[in-house]
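Fig. S4 source data, part A: sequence.
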Amino acid sequence: MLKNLLLINSAVRILFLSETHPGRVHDKRIADTAPYPLPAGSQLLQDLGFHAFTLEGVDILQPVKKPRGKALTRAQKAGNRKLARRRVRIEHVNSSIKRCRMLKETIRLWKDGIRDMVMEIGCALHNFRVRLTPSWAPMV
């Protein structure tokens, strides 16, 4: 299994693709080494896999984790639902990229740079589909 990190804007276009890493590397470790092109004052929606990840000048939006032995408040649950609605659009982008069968299955091309290039092509095809298909509405 291979991993990449994506940076997606509100118009569901892919702005940044990290290098390809083996599946055993933790998401936060990949995020720490990736150069994010985020301007100050922007918002970053991330899941709980990036719990301690921060960027200077960037507002981090992350679901609230349920404390051990306690329950979330109604306001926290409502906030988590609001973020989940936005995350669904991100998951749609991931599935759009993986329409290319080569990205879903094991890539047996071992030459340097080939795996990164295959993922770049999948992301480029997604951005092309978004530009041509009006059904890809922006996230709110």
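Fig. S4 source data, part B ends here. The helical segments are 27-33, 74-97, 101-104, 114-132.
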